[in-house]
Amino acid sequence: MRKSIYLALFLLTMSSPFVAFVQNVSNISYINNRQYIDGLPVFTEEDLAMFKDLPEVEMSERLKGRNLPVFVDNSQQPYMRSIFNQSGLECGQAAGVAYLYTYEVNRLRNLPSNVNDNLYPTHFVFNWSNSGSGSAAAFSTVGIL
């Protein structure tokens, strides 16, 4: 269930209108009848089918009635890594691996993210994504790994 919540939050974050607004489409290509924009595949109905099978999140009454803070500044937590400049087409990996995965693993292990040995790089998933091509992948595949 926790994995489904994280995946849903990640997808909502990455598919917001803001992200679409700041992306600049500069290179559209076709490989094996599949459209790619800036080297990343465009979603097909088959790609989207995996989201239909995600279980619906059910919250307990205790959680439904819980008061949440107005805001949380995770940058004040020792698990949040410092801001960095991504290279290439790694926005999904920067968000999903370098920030989110690093934060979660370090929080669970109670490790600070100001130590290089405790940081996960954006290219951490490259050998598992995009059929092992060694390049960035669509953000939807990063959370599945």
Model description:
The protein has 145 residues and is mainly alpha-helical. The chain has one domain. The chain has six helices and three strands, in the order H-H-E-E-E-H-H-H-H. It has a three-stranded antiparallel sheet, with no helix packed on it. Strand 1 (28-31) and strand 2 (34-37) form a beta hairpin. The longest helix has 19 residues, at 91-109. It is globular and about 50 Å long. The model has no long low-confidence stretch (mean pLDDT 77).
What is the overall silhouette? Answer: globular
Instruction: List the total number of helices.
Output: 6
Number of strand elements: 3
Give unreliable regions as ranges.
Answer: none
Structural domains: how many: 1
| Proportion in helices | 25-40%
- CA radius of gyration is 17 Å
Structural class comes to mainly alpha
Q: SSE order in H/E notation?
A: HHEEEHHHH
Average pLDDT metric: 77
Main sheet, how many strands, which sense, barrel? 3 strands, antiparallel
- What is the topology, as strand order, of the major beta sheet? 1-2-3
Percent of residues in beta strands = 5-15%
Distance between the termini: 16 Å
Oligomer: single chain
What is the topological layout?
Blueprint: H1 2-14, H2 17-22, E1 28-31, E2 34-37, E3 40-41, H3 45-52, H4 61-64, H5 91-109, H6 139-142
Antiparallel strand pairs: 1-2, 2-3
Compact summary:
This protein is mainly α and 145 residues long.
Notable traits:
three-stranded antiparallel beta sheet, 145 residues, mainly alpha, 6 helices, 3 strands
